[in-house]
Amino acid sequence: MRAKLAVPSGRTADYEAWWDDYKNYIYAKDLEGWKRLWHPQSTVKTGYVMPGVPQVISGTEHIRQYMDQLIRNVDRTEYFDDQWHQTVTPNVGFVEHGVSVIKDGHEIYRNHVIKRMTFKDGLLFEMVAYYDTLAHMDYMRRIGATTFKFG
């Protein structure tokens, strides 16, 4: 896995390789490696408001802490049916994917996600995520992460 992927050309293959790194770091629960894929001033935004979750999370450390709360107490997170959609703007694209979370040998979460991703200097600068909010809130309740705190 790369620590930084230069994507000045905006080629779809470069972004697909970046997305593979993103997933592999999550599979391995290597959030320090995963964090290196993000621009230092990055933000994550949710398309929908959820109680207990900030609609905007800024900075790589807060984004890492958020993801840690989502994956630390589960067996694994799996991505499937993913597709990259390049836009005419070289540093912007969309990824559609399914996500499944396994805990104690059972699937406790399944959702379909669409993310708009904007890159800067070869790193993820902004992500806006859209998904089934009710399913996500149920997942957070199941893993005991109903309120996110950053420190």
Can you describe what's shown?
This protein has 151 residues and is α+β, with helices and mostly antiparallel strands. The chain has helices at residues 12-27, 31-35, 60-71, 133-143; strands spanning 38-46, 56-58, 76-86, 92-103, 106-120, 123-130. It has a 6-stranded mixed sheet with strand order 2-1-6-5-4-3. The longest helix has 16 residues, at 12-27. The radius of gyration is 15 Å and the shape is globular.
Q: How does the helix and strand content classify structurally?
A: alpha+beta
Number of strands: 6
Q: Any idea what the shape is?
A: globular
Straight-line N-to-C gap: 28 Å
Summed up, the helix count is: 4
Q: What is the string of SSEs from the N terminus onward?
A: HHEEHEEEEH
Helical amount among residues, as a percent range?
25-40%
Low-confidence stretches: 1-8
Walk across the major sheet and give the strand order: 2-1-6-5-4-3
Radius of gyration: 15 Å
The averaged pLDDT comes out at 87
Question: What proportion of the residues form beta strands (DSSP E)?
Answer: 35-45%
Q: How is the main sheet built?
A: 6 strands, mixed
